Amino acid sequence: MANPKLRLSENIAGAFYVDSTCIDCDTCRQLAPASFRDHGGQSSVYRQPETQAEIRLAEMAIVACPTGSIGSSEKFDARSAIGSFPFQTTENIYYCGFNSERSFGAWSYLIVRPKGKGGNVLIDSPRFSLPLVKKIEAMGGVSQMFLTHRDDIADHERFAGKFGATRIMHKDDGAAKYGIEQIIEGESAVKLDDELTIIPVAGHTRGSMVLLYKNKFLFTGDHLAWSPKRETLIAFRNACWYSWTQQTRTMAKLLDYEFEWVLPGHGRIAYKPKAEMKRHLTGCVEWMKQTN
């Protein structure tokens, strides 16, 4: 947990606070927007949580924070906060919490499916924390791990070893050197089964991929996210490690698909009806073309 001696001056007075080790990953602001804000390069508490729901979310932010930069000067229900993860986002989609500093605080997700449907899928890797591992085990374990790109793989080896999961990653992000079991090559979409489609989308990294589930949920890694400020879909021009031109081209590929949810590793989650989501994606592609 955070060090009170490093408490940032931007925090409002009260129990909850952020210290100077914050890396500005946005996790706390997504989980508890009523309490945490971006004051410019780091997060801080701008309003102390008051209701039980607000307190619970702030406590969950303590658990999720990848750098242990959030604290409370008062005793809090750590057991309950830890037990909140994986946290249901919608339907059978869960946010794992326990974000990893090795992935700069990227979000990872769990798709819970019956064994007859192929079993559970872990998208990218959270921290390998025993309470989280036990919860995932109770939910059916992990059959497959889909790794969107090399930045967000964190503790993939430990999760794969624990659950005997098949890891999936693109060749162009160095999958072979990580000992990945299923290596994707080229740009063509790959159907894992009748519900899951892999779409390679080079750009953020050479081997970036997204995962489409049920033509409804798109797990996008660092390729695509929602911007609350712009109120539309965006790509991260300043965090494109391979090729913005390629990312613009592969973003346009997604116009051939339908989805209602965008679930990124970095950036905000979005839900829109399919037609509206496509309109936002079209606008994103046009904006990207103008910035090439």
3D architecture notes:
The chain is of the alpha+beta class and 292 residues long. It folds into two domains: 4-81, Alpha-Beta Plaits (2-Layer Sandwich); 85-290, Metallo-beta-lactamase, Chain A (4-Layer Sandwich). It contains seven helices and 19 strands. It has helices at residues 27-31, 52-64, 78-83, 130-138, 156-163, 244-253, 274-290, and strands at 16-18, 36-38, 43-45, 70-72, 87-90, 93-95, 109-111, 121-123, 144-146, 166-170, 182-184, 190-191, 196-200, 209-213, 217-221, 225-227, 232-234, 261-264, 270-271. The strands form five sheets. Strands 5-6-7-8-9-10-11 form a seven-stranded mixed sheet, with no helix packed on it. A six-stranded mixed sheet has the order 12-13-14-15-18-19, with no helix packed on it. Strands 1-4 form a two-stranded antiparallel sheet.
Give a quick set of tags describing it:
292 residues; alpha+beta; Alpha-Beta Plaits; Metallo-beta-lactamase, Chain A; 2 domains; 7-stranded mixed sheet; 6-stranded mixed sheet; 7 helices; 19 strands; 23% helix; globular
What sort of overall outline do the alpha carbons produce when their principal axes are compared?
A: globular
Mean of all residue-level pLDDT scores: 97
CATH top level of the largest domain is Alpha Beta
Sequence of strands across the biggest β-sheet = 5-6-7-8-9-10-11
Q: Architecture of the largest domain in CATH?
A: 4-Layer Sandwich
Work out the radius of gyration.
19 Å
Main sheet record: 7 strands, mixed
Ranges where pLDDT stays below 50 over 5 or more residues in a row are none
CATH superfamily of the largest domain: Ribonuclease Z/Hydroxyacylglutathione hydrolase-like
Report the sheet-strand fraction: 15-25%
The CATH topology label of the largest domain is Metallo-beta-lactamase, Chain A
- In N-to-C order, the SSE pattern is EHEEHEHEEEEHEHEEEEEEEEHEEH
Helix content class: 10-25%
Distance between the amino and carboxyl termini:
42 Å
Q: Domains counted in the coordinates: how many?
A: 2
